[in-house]
């Protein structure tokens, strides 16, 4: 039997890389998208192939619709038609709203909102019926942290795209959900923070620790599995009870 096929955007590092490992272990052939971390993406492909899984790496900036089209083209040519799309690619550069440059504003909305939009639009005609889509928001949408206005706004838009697109997939058997992690120990969260700030945020949820990429990958694994098939159009906050 040929394996089902999953595309994971931003899977060279961080949460996306662990999702790729989890979905490969779940039996999917995985397409690992990245923007610039070619070395990390190829290392992950080698690791997964050595473990007996099907994996390919595909460069592409999610903010560019032509790159997303190419991501689907290459995945279809090398692995087959796509069953699962994980829109995970993201950045975090927290700054008070007043200090945002036009460029940083655009970057947030281009990667998170436009990137998710580009991939959803492509998936609308190219995902197999019965497929699964998981977008990435953030628990900061519920926290309204000062310094995160533009990041939060670009992720809030992803939540809206998720809820409407789930309805637009009526009749196709495709579920569309979003995961909204709290702080997860990856470069995106840790970069530029003092040990004190990190420990302070780690203590905030009642479970009193930072999330690990594996915590999030297991949630994604559930949502794309038959066990998660009745969850649709939802935003699942995975954050140890933070908000
Ligand atoms: P990360 O460790 O910084 O990894 C980000 C990944 O996204 C990298 O693989 C990067 O690839 C890729 N990427 C960035 N811009 C891209 C673009 N334009 N096109 C394609 N890929 C791109 O971040 P992470 O912590 O794993 O975050 C993953 C997702 O979870 C993001 O959407 C983030 O907003 C969300 N999230 C994270 C946290 C957290 O605390 N970590 C909390 C809430 C939500 P390159 O290296 O090749 O650029």
Automatic annotation (TrEMBL):
Gene3D superfamilies: NAD(P)-binding Rossmann-like Domain. It comes from the Bacteria. It comes from Pseudomonas trivialis. Pfam families: adh_short_C2. Coiled coil: none annotated. Residues 4-187 form the Ketoreductase domain. Belongs to the short-chain dehydrogenases/reductases (SDR) family. This is 3-ketoacyl-ACP reductase. SMART domains: PKS_KR (SM00822). GO terms for molecular function: oxidoreductase activity, acting on CH-OH group of donors. Keywords: Oxidoreductase. InterPro entries: KR_dom (IPR057326), NAD(P)-bd_dom_sf (IPR036291), SDR_fam (IPR002347). The lineage of its organism: Bacteria, Pseudomonadati, Pseudomonadota, Gammaproteobacteria, Pseudomonadales.
